[in-house]
Amino acid sequence: MTVKPTMIEFRDVQKYYGDYHALRGINASIRAGEFFSLLGPSGCGKTTLLRTIAGFEGISSGAVLIDGKDAAQIPANKRPTNMVFQSYAIFPHLTVEENVGFGLRRAGLDKAEMGRRVGDALAMVGLTGFGKRAAHALSGGQRQRVALARALILKPKVLLLDEPLSALDKKMREQMQMELIKLQRQVGITFILVTHDQEEALVMSDRIAVMFEGRIAQLDDPETLYRRPKTRQVADFIGTMNFLPATVLSDTPDGCEVEVAGLGRCRIAADQAPPGGNGEETTVGFRPETLTILYDGQAAAARETPGTVEEVVYYGDMTYYDVKLDGVRAAVRLSMRNVPGRPVLDIGTRARVAWSPDALVLFR
Amino acid sequence: MTSGGMPRRMGRSEAASGLAMISPTASYAILLLAAPLALIFIYSFLTDGYLEIIRTFTFANYIEAWTNELYRVVMLRSLMVALAVTAATVLLAFPVAYFVSFYVDPSRKSLWLFLITIPFWTSYLIRVFLWKVILGYNGVVNSGLLGLGIISEPLQWINYNVGAVVVTLAHAYAPFAILPIFVALEKIDRSLLEAGQDLGESRFMTFLRVTLPLAMPGVVAAVLIVFIPTIGDFVTPQLVGGPEGRMVANLIQLQYLKLDNYPLGSAIAVSAMMIVTVASLFFLYLNRRYLRGPGS
Question: CA A341, A345, A346, A351: dihedral to nearest 10 degrees?
Fold first, then answer.
């Protein structure tokens, strides 16, 4: 696999609003053709960071490089980036095709060529035949598509998406997620998505930068991010994670020996346990789907712990159980697929819970 | 039948309560606006006699109003003065409204609007007199320039003419023009301006292609609010206009109160209203064509 060239580079980017320190030393590279997400809670600086790429926000120190050029020298209207705004920013006084063709004025195309390009862009987002509509007569999903077509028609090097799906309902959002992924593969442009929805980021991205309080906490591909979050904060933000107190017994280059409350003694591989001292009081985390309830008649697992079902949440395809493991103060959450022969358990049922040391992540 | 009767009865009572609600305003409007207007309209077709109005139908008043050189000149002057005042007011008001909307800190905007309305704290009449003081023979401008030795005798061309009327009216109507434009600018979603730049346009082109069209309803409102009252203004031309600056309202007053010619005065008034109507419709038409863009 060839490593793609860098499209966007942040070099120790700092941003102050008066006394407020919005971006606290951002260092990252975004590769050409990548679907990259900036994920974090509101106020973490993700939108500010996106706007520094677009040129709507200056930076206090550091540098933003777009395709190798220092962005500070390029005004917003000359940057090879286009943006899909959170509000879509569709011009209300123009028709759909005038909106989509807005940026083509400077290209000086004749009417026929202009019409053809606008038609192609509308076809790409599935809005063929909507060209003459007034902008205010569109639904939320259609406005979103107009905003996409309007940005992509200029063939930018980078497409910036500022929470573009947050205003849509769940069904529409999931459909647009798939369409955006397909569209990105088709056009091959670097997409940078800002979102607070961890599921959306996991579904769509090649790589994700998780941000908290103006810093990137972790930058990884979705699978690594989900399976090996580096901090408790990241683990807590992405999906559900159970935490149990643990004591480090011995720390070697190929792993850690830990004593986990309720689960007992086990070994965690080195890539899931950052190095640290022996005898340290720490935390281990594990995802709900890595625990399994063993039903009567099922063979014993290598590692299992008894417990009592405290809460049952039925989701249709899945059931979530909160199980209080013997010897652990707080209940852990686990999820089971609902398949035939696996009845939903009642509250108060005693259960055998199987787990695996491979699924444990150690946090320092 | 019963099932159909119910909603109809409800509808009637709703309409009745609606009528009851608007009836004070409606009767006010009918008695004090529509009725006098109708009377003037009727007068305009009657014949003037000595100390009485003869009830014979005639077009003679309109023919007189539209063919007599004197009346034509005054009407045309009124139209020109109103257009000049409108142009000056709106062109000067737009930058002020733009500044308050885009550059003033949001917490200070109401303070700015408050300051803009301060001229309204004194009566219109007093403001007109102030301009008389400023522009007069021994006024502020002349004594100032004389004192500085720039002129040797007072300027006479700055007062009692059309120019003085335009200046005075433009000052009087400035807040009327600023406020609707400000409201229209406030309503513009600021991300639209970012989108304009994001799509490759400079700030200036974004202003022309996004801000201005979206502010147009406010500009048109400002144009109508300034144009309609100024064309029929009576006090300003009377006080600072001099003989050269007489406008149509002064002419109507002359016919009614000095010459006692109610029918001709009415015909001139109705003609002036028609001119205002045509001019206003023309502004609306221009606005529509502008918004539809040059292509179509």
Answer: 130
